[in-house]
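pasting for ref. prot 1 ->
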Amino acid sequence: MSTSFPAEKIDTAIIHRRGLQEQIRMLTEDCNWSERVGQKIDVFWLRTDRGSFFGYSYEYFLDCNNVRLIYWYDNPGGVGTPVDFMIEDLEDESMWVVAKTKHLKTRRSTSICLRRVPTENKSIGGPTHPHLYPTPYRR
């Protein structure tokens, strides 16, 4: 298992468009990716005027931060290169997680991990892609 976040899978144009440079730097340089705790928590489908997209939400507790990573693909298998990518703070609600009980922060067995990371390291954000704002539909 890799010790750093696989940033090479994300197109640099997406990183720049969303303003994720600092968050990607933090994930690749400050976090031990091999010791992450978490998993894929939701898969959903979204139809826009640009086409159909399939979103995959992952939530992780890391030694440097707690994050939700959302990968967008133009195919249902979630293979190939993501067409978009988002990073959210795990403690924030997300419109990209349809079944709220799937949030790792609401699971008793994993909620203790939220207390492990100092709050001064929590700086996740980035503008939201305007074409991906509609309400997601469960597949």
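and prot 2 ->
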Amino acid sequence: MAGPQRRHPIRLENGMQVIEVASLIAIIALLAIGVKRFNERCQSKFGHMFFSKKAFFVTVAAVALFVAGNAWRVSAIKAHSDTLNAIMLMVVAGLVACGLVFLNVKQTDLFYGLVGSVLQLGAFSALALFSWPFLIVAVVLQLIVILSARPVYIVNR
């Protein structure tokens, strides 16, 4: 009589999962390299960087307005009330995004501006949606540090 069969703890039931995960990692790495090269090319050719902190914060503002407007719209529909304010908030988010696209096209040319804006809005929107919890924690920690700071007195001048 044979003992219980030993199973390997890391063994996958389907060998295709390894290939899928490796392919996903390779695609993400290639996209990151491509975006970095595109950003460097635009910096050297036009003096404009698409992927900067300023652009990220503008995109975060647009995404926040859009998400808040959509949540407001859904709650207004459930309560059978007016959705106009929610739609206006979403329109403001769209205008902020259009302003970012206009700025990018103005500082580059039409092709680079549109391609860079699509890459920028796509990447930063996804990053903004996933980084909200971390951003909130960072703001709270900064507020705690600011409020707990003690004044510094200079004794000898």
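The two ends are 90 Å apart (CA to CA).
The CA atoms of residues 69 and 86 lie 4 Å apart.
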